Amino acid sequence: MIINWYLLSSGKLQKQPAPPGWPTAEPGQLGESWFDIEEAEPEELRRFLAPLNIHPLMLDRCVDLAVVPGVISYGQAVLLEFPAAFDREAEGQAYLTFVLQSPVLVTIRHGLMPAINDLIKSLLEEKAPSLSHLVQIVYLVLDHLTDLSVQAQTEVRDQILRMAKILNEDPGAVHASDLTKLRWQVDKLVSLIENQLYCIAGLNASDNAALQEPHRKAYIQDLASEVEIAQRGIYRLEARVNDLHAYYQMASSDRVEKRLRILTIVSAITLPLGLIAGLLGMNVGGLPGSKFPFGFTIVIVLMVVIAVVELWYFKRKGWFN
C-alpha cells in the first residue's frame, strides 16, 4: 500500500513524509490532512482506516473491490465513490473513493489515475491557489475529473466528425468494426457521465455539516451544472452515432443493391445467348443451318446483336445509373 500524506496549513498543501500506517497522533490532532492511498489490499486498508472510527458499513464499502458509485453519509463522515477519467482501452472503470471526516480526507484509488498526480503536483506549487478547507480539495479533484470527461467528450465528438466525413466521401472506406468501436466509446462515456452526475447530485443532497455552508454548497452546485451540460452533450453524440450507423447501413445496402443489379443485367444478357447456344448445340438431326458454310458466323452475329440491344435497353432504362 502506498500512502501519500499532505497537510493543509496556511492555505497551502504541504507534502509530509510517507507514513507506513496511520500517524502516531490521533486524527483530531493531525491538522487538516489528506491521505491519498494507492495499491491498497483490503485488510491493510481496513487497518489504516480503523482510527477514523467511521461507520462499519462505510468501512466495508471502502475495502470492497466491487465499487458502486454513490454517496453515503453517517454522522460527521461522508463516503463518495466517484468514477474517474475516461479510458478508451480499459475494460473496467477506475474509481476514486473519498472519505471525508473533518479534519481528515482520505482518497483511495481503485485503478490507475495519472490525472490525480498531475493535479496534486499543481497544488503543491508555490503559485498554487490558496486552499481554505478540505471540501475545497474534494471540489478541485471532482472538478478535474469532470473536466477530463468533458475533454474526452470533445475528442469523441471530433472522432465522430472525422468518421462522418469519411463516410460521406468514401463509404467503402468505413468498416462496421469502426462504428462498433465508436459506439462502444460513446456508451462508455455516457455511463461515466451519468454516474458522475449521480454522485455529485448525492453530494449536493447530503446533510453532512461540512457540506452545508453556503459557499461550499455553491462549489457542488456549480459542479452539478457543469456535468448536466456534459450529459446533454453526450446524449447528442449518442444520437449522432446512431445516425452514422443508419447512414452506414443505407450505404451498405446501396452497394449490395448495385452489385445485385449488375449481376441481374449480366444474367439477363446471357440468358437468351445461352438459350440459343443450347438449342443449336443439341446433338440431333434437322438443326437449321448445320450444313450452311456461314451458319456459325450468322449465329455469332445474331448473339452479338441481341447482347447490344439488351445493353442499349438497360442503359436507356437507367439500370447502370
Describe the structure.
- By secondary structure, this protein is an alpha+beta fold.
- It has one domain (2-251): CorA soluble domain-like (Beta Polymerase, domain 2), CATH 3.30.460.20.
- 56% of the residues lie in helices and 14% in strands.
- The chain has a seven-stranded mixed beta sheet with strand order 2-1-3-7-6-5-4, covered by helices on one side.
- A hairpin with a 2-residue loop joins strand 4 (70-74) and strand 5 (77-83).
Large-scale geometry:
rod-shaped
- Looking at the overall shape, the CATH architecture is 2-Layer Sandwich
Spatial ordering of strands, largest sheet? 2-1-3-7-6-5-4
Global Rg: 35 Å
Instruction: Bin the helical content.
Output: 55-70%
Q: Class, according to the CATH hierarchy? A: Alpha Beta
CATH topology: Beta Polymerase, domain 2
Number of helices: 7
What would you call the quaternary organization? single chain
Number of separate structural domains: 1
Low-confidence stretches: none
Give the N-terminus to C-terminus distance in angstroms.
69 Å
What percentage of amino acids are in beta strands? 5-15%
Mean pLDDT: 83
Class derived from helix and strand content: alpha+beta
Brief description of this entry?
This protein is α+β, with helices and mostly antiparallel strands. The protein has helices at residues 42-49, 56-63, 114-123, 134-169, 176-205, 214-280, 295-316, and strands at residues 2-9, 12-16, 32-38, 70-74, 77-83, 95-101, 104-110.
